[in-house]
Amino acid sequence: MRAIAGSVWQLPLVPRNGINAYVIGDVLVDTGIKQSAGKIAGMLEGRSISAIALTHAHGDHAGAMKRLAARFGVPVWCGAADREAAETGRLVLSPTLDRPRASTVANAVAGSMARPSPAHWPRATRSPQGSPSSTRRATPRATSRSGARRTAR
């Protein structure tokens, strides 16, 4: 785990710094892919976790959610659009453009430190300050079978 600020810790997963989970206070934010459960549990050994907050229910953010929630005996917090995925464990496999990507739950946990990632907000592009700008539309993205992103033309 790497301290970022105050009570905020980064848990780098696989690929290192490509997928991350965070601990904010005693809340685990995101759980990485399904295979990350053991690594996260090891990094959290000796820490008290009160809940898991999901930014959204994609496999790279919520894959280990069920295993970690059961292991720590904690509730999972998520946005309304991801409720079914969190309750059933069936994660969102393909993005839809009409559904918000980040839940307000994780943003509330993180307070002003939460910043949505433009890669997960298809309708927004990066403004000069690095936050999404709703005034411009990004080029739609598609994902190849290998999982690599390519820009649709």
Layout of helices and strands:
Elements: E1 2-5, E2 8-12, E3 20-24, E4 27-29, H1 37-43, E5 51-53, H2 59-62, H3 65-72, E6 76-77, H4 83-88, H5 104-110, E7 125-126, E8 132-133, E9 141-143, E10 149-151
Parallel strand pairs: 4-5, 5-6
Antiparallel strand pairs: 1-2, 2-3, 3-4, 7-8, 9-10
Q: Write down the Rg.
A: 15 Å
The number of helical segments is 5
Enumerate the strands of the largest sheet in spatial order, edge to edge or round the barrel.
1-2-3-4-5-6
- Name the quaternary structure: single chain
Class inferred from helices and paired strands: alpha+beta
The count of domains is: 1
What structural keywords apply?
153 residues; single chain; alpha+beta; six-stranded mixed β-sheet; globular; Metallo-beta-lactamase, Chain A; two-stranded antiparallel ribbon
Summarize it.
By secondary structure, the protein is of the alpha+beta class. The protein is built from five helices and ten strands. The protein has one domain (2-114): Ribonuclease Z/Hydroxyacylglutathione hydrolase-like (Metallo-beta-lactamase, Chain A, 4-Layer Sandwich), CATH 3.60.15.
Account of the protein in words:
It is built from five helices and ten strands, in the order ββββαβααβααββββ. It starts with a strand and ends with a strand. The chain is globular and about 30 Å long. 21% of the residues lie in helices and 21% in strands. The chain has helices at residues 37-43, 59-62, 65-72, 83-88, 104-110, and strands at residues 2-5, 8-12, 20-24, 27-29, 51-53, 76-77, 125-126, 132-133, 141-143, 149-151. The strands form three sheets. It has a six-stranded mixed β-sheet with strand order 1-2-3-4-5-6, with helices on both faces. The protein has a two-stranded antiparallel sheet with strand order 7-8. A two-stranded antiparallel sheet has the order 9-10. The longest helix has 8 residues, at 65-72. It has one domain (2-114): 4-Layer Sandwich (Metallo-beta-lactamase, Chain A). With 153 residues, the protein is of the alpha+beta class. Residues 97-104 and 121-144 have low confidence and may be disordered.
